[in-house]
Amino acid sequence: MLIDTHAHLQDEQYKEDLQDVLKRAEDAGLEKIICVGYDYASSCQALELARKIPQVYAVVGVHPHDSQELNEEILAKLFEMAKDPRVVAIGEIGLDFYRDLSPREDQRKAFIAQIKLAQELYKPIVIHDRDAHQEVMDIIKKEKAGRSEGIMHCFSGFLPMAIDLMKQGFYISFAGPLTFKNAKKTVEVAAKMPQDRILIETDCPYLSPEPFRGKRNEPARVSYIAAKLAEIRQKSVKEITYITSLNARKVFRIKD
Ligand code: NI
């Protein structure tokens, strides 16, 4: 069965119909959904959902956009929260030099502080990297961020970076952009990454795959990413589903 390794179910776009969204996910063959926080409030909401809904797990952390909000107090709260067995990773954390919504120096500090937090708890990290490939790699290497493993979410780099990440202990996750017309670079990565390092996600409510591009996304559509990956790697959808779910269980240390 499928696992959506990156969803934002706490987004207000699901306020009216979360139950329907979850039902459609179940109908589409999803067994688990990893609900990812992006600031303190959304991390609390992710954990709340994970405690309520058996198929949902939480990832807690502060996104580079919000890294200005990260202080000692919030860091300590995240640490306590992340001890909960329903919290399977720290994220999404990283650098975003495309939108630059927080000063870069704050982004770097928040990224490094949360890498250290994850290492203390021996939890994997979920990385957001937009237009900051080189610096993200430098920090990963310097901090040995892959020691407790991690995921590069919605990977957008070239193959050598993906290989480098793999060597550092990371998995590569593919989202809706893999189905877009201009996805040549990502398709190459998806074709050539070793099978034991690939994951699939929706990043919903964002990044709807074709033919839904531009519309609100939801976990059920991770099946479109699985289908595209199967086509690229010339495997059956069943095989891709099996392998990506196995990888997700491994990296998030999910035992049930
Ligand atoms: Ni996200």
Structural account:
The chain has helices at 18-27, 40-52, 72-82, 104-121, 133-143, 159-167, 184-192, 222-233, 237-252; strands at residues 2-7, 30-36, 56-60, 87-96, 125-130, 150-152, 170-174, 198-200. With 256 residues, the chain is α/β, with parallel strands linked by helices. The protein has one domain: Alpha-Beta Barrel (TIM Barrel), CATH 3.20.20. Bound molecules: nickel (II) ion.
How are the strands of the biggest sheet laid out side by side?
A: 1-2-3-4-5-6-7-8
Q: Nearest-angstrom radius of gyration?
A: 17 Å
CATH class: Alpha Beta
Ranges with pLDDT <50 over ≥5 residues? Answer: none
Largest sheet: 8 strands, parallel
Give the N-to-C terminal Cα separation: 13 Å
Mean pLDDT: 97
CATH architecture: Alpha-Beta Barrel
Q: In terms of structural class, how would the helical and strand content be classed?
A: alpha/beta
Q: Write the CATH fold name.
A: TIM Barrel
Give the helix tally.
9
Number of domains: 1
| Hetero ligands | nickel (II) ion
For the secondary structure, the number of strands is 8
